[in-house]
Design goal:
Shape: globular
Order of helices and strands: HEEEHHHHHHEEHHEEEHHEEHHHHHHHEH
Number of helices: 19
Strand order of the largest sheet: 1-2-3
Structural class: mainly alpha
Strand content: 5-15%
Oligomer: single chain
């Protein structure tokens, strides 16, 4: 049953006696005004809202916004980018802030429900949860293609009139143009309220760099240990209590596991065991690459390549995107650390040599396939039918996000893709952002599964976009923080009983942007959630540094390599699924790089 979500902008309803009494009182005031006075009252309002910055070692950008949402003062030297981020329009920020504030009581956050830590509850009760919170569910949820391209020839109404025409209770309006969406996004962002946690500093954090580093090492070892050495793909799921191996398979989770292994290598570039595991995984997917459809882009050398995963009749676009991410981050790791292709510490390494030039050729074919998969509404087709030779007209919030992350990282980190991909990325970005926020919030519900599917992938690619300072990047910085606020305060991420490691990939992306901006209220809220959430999830790691705080893990010890370091999907569920660990370990990597630096 869908959860009812309170409208954050809706004002509380008054009792009927007050309502009708107020009507009579207002009528009396109008009568007195007409007949008893000719004076007029002018109400003045402030003309700007300003972000304050805090001092620190990192470079902080002080950005001031006027009521139009324009950047009018900044110490950022990139003036051209600032000009591109200024969009005209009379935005009623103060009014929406008042509507968004709700009750006047102070929200300290101390009363928020935390993850259910009742280890004594039965395993059957946990397994009966109606919703799995694994972030890589890929439940073939098709969006309604509500983010269609706007009509650029249509005259744009004054935005202040637009706000009033929609009414105070319609905070998710129908937006007709990209500019309208970006201005709405700025207003919505500036009206957010964050919980303030005064004790959120290094002395009061539960997590430490040593806890996270140990957890990461164990998690990466777990992924490597679950690779099928003779094949290159991974064990899908293993129950370490019943000793049962799940023979199911999922192409997208296999590709995600390979990307997770690649990120482990990136975080431990001297670990040749991780390097060899990545290369085995790449070789597995290489064996299952076939010629794809011709690219629709008018580009030279535009032949595409796609993955034909064993026993599946569709080449899923998300699988190809995750394989592309694996190639990109493997090439980056090798280049940044000046690692030779035949480096290794045993005889096995000499048999696994991946040609970088060959990988670049494969990446080109993958990128061509992904751009071909774009539909007329600028979303991406969720799959290509190998039997019919056609792409689906349906899209997926998961795959839309995964594809965009692949395209963004290719444009940023691989030479030769920027001029081709950045225009595509800048065109698609607002369409997808609007489709999975204001459009689904208006037509579906605020706590939408479509937003959840798009959430962490979009946060990661918009984080990369923001750091690259591409067109309108400041607005997409707003987006990342808005979505972090959504996952925390609307989706209630700390109240979930299933694993939510995926969510922290997005929350930490928002934390980094808030840190760059010096948005202290957001930093306080996000920092608390990250520390509280990752600490709780760390207790679900088999033989992890916090496992002694979990009664279920204490009761079920194990010394199996294919179990140690794995992450359970709930505090008392033994099945270890490969993608659950992959997402949480990536969040741990991001936390170590952004917040818990040694």
């Amino acid at each position: 049953m869908p959860r009812s979500v309170e409208n954050p902008f809706k004002e509380k309803r008054l009792p009927k006696w007050i309502y009708y009494g107020s009507i009579g009182f207002v009528s009396l005031l109008i009568y007195l005004f007409i007949f008893g006075t000719t004076n007029k009252t002018t109400i003045s309002t402030t003309n700007s809202s300003t972000f304050s910055t805090s001092t620190g070692d990192s470079v902080r950008r002080r950005t001031n916004y006027n009521r139009n949402g324009d950047v009018f003062e900044s110490n950022n030297n990139n003036n051209n980018n600032n000009e591109r981020n200024a969009i005209q329009g009379d935005i009623q920020i103060d009014r929406l802030k008042k509507l968004n504030s709700g009750d006047d009581d102070d929200r300290s956050g101390d009363d928020r429900m935390e993850v259910d830590n009742n280890e004594d509850s039965s395993e059957s009760e946990s397994e009966s949860e109606s919703e799995s919170e694994s972030g890589d569910e890929h439940e073939n949820e098709n969006d309604d293609n509500e983010g269609s391209n706007s009509n650029e020839d249509e005259d744009e109404d004054d935005f202040s009139d637009f706000i009033y025409q929609q009414g105070e209770e319609d905070e998710f309006p129908l937006l007709k143009t990209q500019d309208e969406y970006l201005r709405w996004l700025r207003v919505y962002y500036q009206s957010l309220e964050f919980d303030r946690h005064e004790n959120n500093n290094s002395k009061h954090k539960q997590l430490t760099p040593s806890i996270l580093s140990e957890s990461l090492q164990l998690g990466c070892d777990y992924i490597a240990a679950n690779q099928k050495v003779n094949e290159g793909n991974f064990n899908y799921q293993y129950n370490f209590v019943t000793k049962e191996m799940d023979q199911s398979d999922s192409p997208v989770r296999q590709a995600g596991a390979l990307w997770g292994m690649t990120l482990c290598f990136q975080s431990h570039p001297t670990n040749m065991k991780y390097k060899r595991a990545v290369e085995r995984g790449i070789q597995f997917f290489q064996k299952h690459m076939i010629d794809g459809p011709a690219s629709i882009r008018d580009l030279p050398d535009s032949d595409s390549r796609m993955i034909k995963y064993p026993h599946f009749d569709e080449s899923q676009s998300g699988v190809n995107a995750l394989y592309g991410l694996s190639i990109i981050d493997y090439i980056r790791t090798m280049h940044d650390n000046k690692i030779k292709q035949d480096d290794g510490d045993d005889v096995d390494s000499s048999n696994i040599i991946i040609s970088i030039s060959n990988l670049k050729t494969q990446l080109k074919g993958t990128i061509n396939f992904l751009t071909y998969m774009q539909n007329d509404d600028l979303h991406f087709s969720q799959g290509y039918s190998l039997l019919e030779g056609t792409k689906s007209d349906q899209s997926s919030p998961y795959y839309d996000g995964e594809i965009m992350l692949c395209l963004v990282k290719a444009a940023k980190y691989i030479i030769g893709y920027d001029t081709i991909l950045i225009p595509i990325i800048e065109q698609v970005a607002p369409i997808l952002a609007q489709a999975y926020t204001v459009d689904v919030w208006r037509n579906d519900e605020h706590d939408s599964d479509k937003t959840k599917g798009f959430y962490q992938w979009s946060s990661m690619f918009f984080w990369e976009y923001y750091l690259a300072k591409w067109n309108n990047y400041e607005f997409y910085g707003d987006y990342v923080i808005v979505l972090a606020h959504w996952i925390i305060h609307t989706h209630g991420i700390l109240q979930r009983n299933r694993n939510t490691g995926y969510a922290f990939e997005g929350i930490i992306s928002a934390y980094d942007i808030a840190k760059i901006r010096g948005h202290d209220d957001a930093l306080s809220d996000l920092g608390y959630i990250i520390d509280e959430g990752l600490y709780n999830l760390g207790r679900w790691q088999v033989n992890g540094p916090l496992s002694n705080t979990n009664a279920y893990l204490v009761k079920h010890p194990t010394d199996e390599k294919i179990a140690i370091g794995g992450i359970m999907n709930a505090i008392n569920q033994a099945p270890l699924r490969i993608d659950t660990t992959q997402h949480q370990m990536h969040a741990v990597m991001m936390a170590l790089a952004t917040i818990y630096k040694e």
